[in-house]
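Run: sequence + flavin-adenine dinucleotide -> complex structure.
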Amino acid sequence: MASISFTKKIAVKKEYDIIVCGGGVAGVAAAITARTLGASVLLIEKSNILGGLGTLGLINLFVPMCNGRGKQIIFGLCEKWARLSASLGYDTIPKEWKNGEPSEPTNVRYVQRYSPHIFALQLMDEVTKAGVDLLYDCLVCDPVMEGKICKGVITESKSGTEYYSAKMVIDTTGDCDVLRRGGVPTVSGENFYTYIGKKITLESCRLAAEKGDIKFAFSDICGGNINLWGDNQPSDKPKWSGLTVDEVTDYLITNQKAILSSLKSEDRETHEITHLPMMPQLRTTCHIKGDYSLKVEDAYQHFEDSVCAINDFEHRDHLWEVPLRTLTRKDYPNMLTAGRSADGTGYGWDLLRVIPVAILTGQAAAHAAVLAINSGMGVAEVDIKALQENLTKDNVMIHFPDELVPEDKTIILHGKNAAEIDGGHW
Ligand SMILES: Cc1cc2nc3c(=O)[nH]c(=O)nc-3n(C[C@H](O)[C@H](O)[C@H](O)COP(=O)(O)OP(=O)(O)OC[C@H]3O[C@@H](n4cnc5c(N)ncnc54)[C@H](O)[C@@H]3O)c2cc1C
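>> structure
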């Protein structure tokens, strides 16, 4: 392949303790947490709002934060934000959970569907109030590496090419772009045919007015609409990795054409598309090849280096813990990840990438990064007890209580015994 090479002198714009690359829910959680712990923090976001897939991508649901029997598992910033989103936008928290964990067991799960754009504004407010430096419309292009140490990142924006240095870099691009470009080993995934926007119709507006609740005005408009299990993925549609510009473009054109064609069967005077996803709705693009990969078989196991306990968002009872090692690699002492690029295998990756867990791993990554800076250790080698104590103070459950482990520990996923499922993504 032909190639060009050139050199360019770039001034160091500013130095930070921590640079967080990507302002999805994981990046926002990491940036706010690190700043609250006293670190100087730069959060760089390539789009114009915060929240990533959770706002720009129109994925507006905090999936269940409980074990399906009335016991809350996920707390921390996730709990705070679920309630924050309900304070100004849609409030869909079930009545059983309105005032916190119910006093009686219940099968009703603790979820919250929120207004994506109101939540994005609230995240911006939280970030700026915390004193995080935020750059919008700014792309992190490349980390600058000296061997396996990251010295900082190069950005592209209206200001041109700039360089920011950092003691610690957290990659929350969702796609592991910064780690990957820095030479950190990663694992790529496959993505189904999914692209869901929002529309209104005269009928849906009438319903909203009748109910006195604006959320009824919106319904989905779909290109592809394939669920996380890949049910009914059309055989003529590719599974996209989402890791090249050609694939992302093909994914977008294919899905946008499908939406356009669906409009032709409707009366043009009665409908309007209000939102198209402004980022590709790709679930599993790329994760760090971390020091540990979370697996379905790890259910009900306590890890010594656990940074949070998590529940299964699809099934009752199932519980896991997330080891710090899913976010780090010992050989890269000042780079780590959080959110949907944490290391999980098969459904283990799905467990890690949902909004509540992405927020918790963002919090954990920040605590680990600050401890590493303060102790002069690599981020994979921080004092785990201190890390867990700090996360506990931040309202994160580290280990699930043993009394919540059911007698029958068989893991059934999507109606099938997990032990009989081949590895790989569903
Ligand atoms: C179709 C679909 C349905 C889903 N359904 C649910 C659901 O119902 N509930 C749920 O909890 N989860 C759901 N998820 C998962 C969840 O939405 C995401 O995994 C989660 O929001 C990921 O958060 P994140 O912060 O890790 O990454 P992202 O949301 O991907 O955020 C990454 C951010 O980084 C920015 N960025 C990327 N590259 C750069 C760069 N080079 N420079 C600067 N900025 C950059 C992006 O603009 C983005 O803001 C779904 C996902 C999909 C795709």
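>> summary
Residues 355-375 form the longest helix (21 residues). The two ends are 35 Å apart (CA to CA).
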